[in-house]
Prior knowledge:
single chain; about 425 residues; alpha+beta; 8-stranded mixed β-sheet; 19 strands; about 20% strand; elongated; disordered N terminus
Amino acid sequence: MIRGIxxxxxxxxxxILCMLLFANNSNAGERFLNEVLQDxxxxxxLEDITKMRHYAADMLINFGGIISPSGKEHERAKAVAEExxxxxxxxxxxxxxxxxxxxIKGRSGKALIFxxxxxxxxxxxxxxxxxxxxxxxxxxxxxxxxxxxxLTTVSLITAAKALIDSGLVPEHDIVFAGVSEEETGxxxxxxxxxxxxxxxIAFVDVLGEGNSISxxxxxxxxxxxxxxxxxxHTLRGGLPNINQAIxxxxxxxxxxxxxxxxxxxxxxxxxxVVSSGAVFNHKPETGWFSLDVRSLDQVHxxxxxxxxxxxxxxxxxxxxxxxxxxxxxxxxxxxxEGALKSSLVQTSRKISNYxxxxxxxxxxxxxxxxxxxxGGTLSIGISSERGGRRGFPDEWANILTMMRTAKNVFLTAIxxxxxxxx
Length: 422
């Protein structure tokens, strides 16, 4: 009889343990997503996002119509902050970066941070000035320069509004941030990461609706290689000539073997732009060429750059001309152990499936998430085509993509942020 009672106690304890394990697994992965998709509040929130189509399109016309090249994002940041306050986000601020940040407060002291990009390419700003009119709605599209990038910021605000209206309360702070200078060195993301790295459970870099999910970071170093030598008329002799030095250096650089040896590590080396003289009968005094160095591994980047420096030194000795390497941008690589199997990545994949996608998973992202991954914080980038013709006068953004992106953010916040009715 005693043995029977002991056995029953053991079975009961084992059952309790199994229940706890089941609960933990459901909070981290598919079970929890399946659970929230049966929640009437969540389903209503998804319906509300669908109904916010016109609200979101008008917001995109507003944000996208503000000229916002890298380093000059202040006006767009202020407009985003104003909308954040209207919908009820708290602790809204525009800092010196300038990044714009708004929060749904949680209970844990930790934070789940969603990131969008505020700045546009220089060509986009030029097209905005030339357009002479704001973007406009055309069926399922918002047409006009400035709309493609701003789509993701609008998606964040739309999702935030639906979350606030739902009344669900998160375990962790849900932070919505638009960051500056993504196009010129990820400066805004560096500022944001410094602010939140101690409290962040994860970063989600929102680049689209989630047809691609990045969980690792490809390192990218861009250099401008400047060459200097004596100028002179053709009749005074053609040598020394910086074009000879540039050509010799490029030829040797493109023979560096690491891209072939470490192809499986996305190791790449490219020269895309060469620039020097302006007239036929004068040899130039200055010139330059671009250098694009990439790899998943910092060691391969360092090795290739060391070989480039040696080549430039050799050519300098051979021809008596001078080279200088000028940094254009440095995007660090990084990998988080176990990221692929993490609840963040797997839940994001399932959310994308639910929204009709079949996402490609990649360990080679290249955007704001590189900063947080390189710093050792679990991060993903969810991306997709947002529209088309970015950088051209007839740029456009897809409204349906914008709304699906908002739904992805909404569901990610509820699952990973553990939002529930209290």
